[in-house]
């Protein structure tokens, strides 16, 4: 190693650099010490939210791969600076951060605050409607001599038996056409549709894979389902795997089914609150059925390409945060150039019903007539 000889001038420059560095460190420490606890806690929560999303949110990798990384980094840096300067509290920063994903890519991600719901509603609900009573209830009844209505207000597992029984009521009737009303159905379990899949199938379609983002936090979310053998074996496979994504479920292109004669024609009614597991039936009809068409005015909610949501809270503010642990192969094929959600096949030329409960409203009557044509 060669010997280094320094001149008096070099020694002087070194001392000056040392003094400047020391002053900068002291200034930084002083600055940090003067930051209010509220801002420090807001920064901790914001950094936690960003890090958690990047590490666990299933659609995140695909979004970055689609060319949005530079825009994303700029957005998160700008929001952090606002928090640091006290220009935004953690609720506003968290809402703006999550809305970046929610408004453009996936509506399974959300913040559990009233302010977020108000902000997200401006993206979803039509602005020119007034529904006096919007509280869809379960309905299974005859509309006219050849049309039966099944209104499914939720895909909650507790309704699986009722939904199946309602379908059998239709089969026992003398009706040949079926209206499945999904307005206001924000999702739950896909299992409520098993009987309907069998009856509406007409032809094969492309396969669809549901990918699970394999992280310890996401696996922890599945603990409550470990009594299921399939889930337990899947979790054990993930625990020994080094892959970032594991295949959770695959819907084959050819389901091995045969077209049934149980339904002559069918209609699926949607609105902006048709979401998640309710969108699963809409997707099935779009891809596998000829006899069924989707009716409405606008698109569904837009939570149809991710799922198996997990809920966590930010450490200081305790603000709730929901995100998806799985993402479908369809998500990777989406260019996200249009509106999220699923568009209707047939536009209903009527305003939204003023009342939607357990009634037969104007939409149902119009669709019943259209099914006869």
Question: Could you write a compact summary of the structure shown?
Answer:
The chain is α/β, with parallel strands linked by helices and 373 residues long. 43% of the residues lie in helices and 17% in strands.
Give the biggest sheet: 6 strands, mixed
Average pLDDT reading = 90
Order of helices and strands: HHHHEHEEEHEHEHHEEHEEEHEEH
Q: Tell how many strands the DSSP assignment holds.
A: 13
Helical content (DSSP H or I, runs of 4+): 40-55%
End-to-end distance, in Å? 93 Å
Number of helices: 12
Rg (C-alpha, Å) = 27 Å
Strand content: 15-25%
Category by helix and strand content: alpha/beta
Strand order of the largest sheet: 3-4-5-8-9-12
Low-pLDDT runs of 5+ residues are 1-7
Shape: globular
Question: Could you describe the 3D structure shown?
Answer:
The protein has 373 residues and is an alpha/beta fold. 43% of the residues lie in helices and 17% in strands. The strands form three sheets. It has a six-stranded mixed β-sheet, sandwiched between helices. It is globular. The termini are far apart.
Features:
373 residues, 5-stranded antiparallel beta sheet, 13 strands, alpha/beta
Provide the fold topology.
Blueprint: H1 8-34, H2 37-56, H3 60-84, H4 90-102, E1 110-111, H5 114-124, E2 133-134, E3 139-144, E4 147-151, H6 160-172, E5 177-181, H7 194-200, E6 208-213, H8 216-221, H9 229-240, E7 245-251, E8 265-269, H10 277-288, E9 292-296, E10 306-313, E11 320-328, H11 329-333, E12 346-347, E13 355-356, H12 362-372
Parallel strand pairs: 2-13, 4-5, 5-8, 8-9, 9-12
Antiparallel strand pairs: 1-11, 3-4, 6-7, 6-11, 10-11
């Amino acid at each position: 190693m060669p010997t280094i000889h320094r001149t008096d001038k070099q020694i002087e420059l070194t001392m000056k650099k040392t003094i400047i560095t020391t002053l900068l460190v002291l200034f930084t420490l002083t600055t940090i010490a003067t930051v209010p606890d509220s801002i420090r806690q807001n920064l901790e929560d914001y950094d936690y939210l960003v890090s958690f999303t990047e590490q666990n949110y299933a659609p995140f990798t695909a979004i970055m791969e689609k060319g949005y990384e530079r825009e994303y980094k700029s957005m998160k840096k700008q929001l952090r600076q606002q928090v640091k300067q006290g220009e935004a509290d953690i609720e506003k920063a968290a809402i703006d951060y999550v809305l970046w994903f929610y408004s453009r890519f996936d509506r399974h991600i959300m913040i559990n605050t009233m302010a977020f719901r108000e902000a997200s509603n401006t993206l979803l609900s039509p602005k020119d409607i007034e529904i006096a009573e919007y509280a869809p209830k379960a309905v299974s009844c005859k509309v006219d001599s050849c049309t039966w209505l099944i209104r499914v207000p939720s895909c909650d597992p507790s309704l699986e038996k009722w939904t199946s029984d309602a379908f059998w009521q239709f089969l026992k009737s003398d009706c040949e056409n079926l209206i499945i009303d999904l307005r206001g159905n924000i999702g739950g379990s896909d299992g409520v549709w098993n009987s309907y899949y069998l009856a509406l199938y007409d032809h094969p379609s492309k396969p669809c894979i549901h990918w699970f983002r394999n992280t310890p936090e996401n696996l922890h979310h599945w603990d409550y389902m470990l009594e299921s053998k399939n889930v337990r074996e899947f979790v054990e496979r993930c625990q020994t795997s080094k892959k970032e994504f594991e295949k959770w479920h695959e819907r084959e292109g050819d389901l091995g089914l045969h077209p049934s004669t149980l339904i002559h024609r069918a209609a699926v009614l949607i609105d902006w609150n048709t979401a998640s597991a309710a969108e699963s039936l809409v997707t099935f009809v779009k891809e596998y059925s000829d006899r069924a068409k989707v009716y409405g005015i606008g698109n569904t909610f837009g939570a149809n390409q991710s799922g198996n949501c997990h809920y966590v809270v930010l450490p200081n503010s305790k603000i709730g945060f929901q995100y998806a642990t799985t993402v479908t192969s369809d998500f990777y094929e989406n260019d996200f150039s249009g509106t999220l959600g699923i568009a209707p096949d047939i536009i209903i030329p009527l305003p939204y019903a003023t009342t939607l409960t357990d009634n037969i409203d104007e939409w149902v009557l119009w669709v019943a007539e259209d099914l006869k044509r």
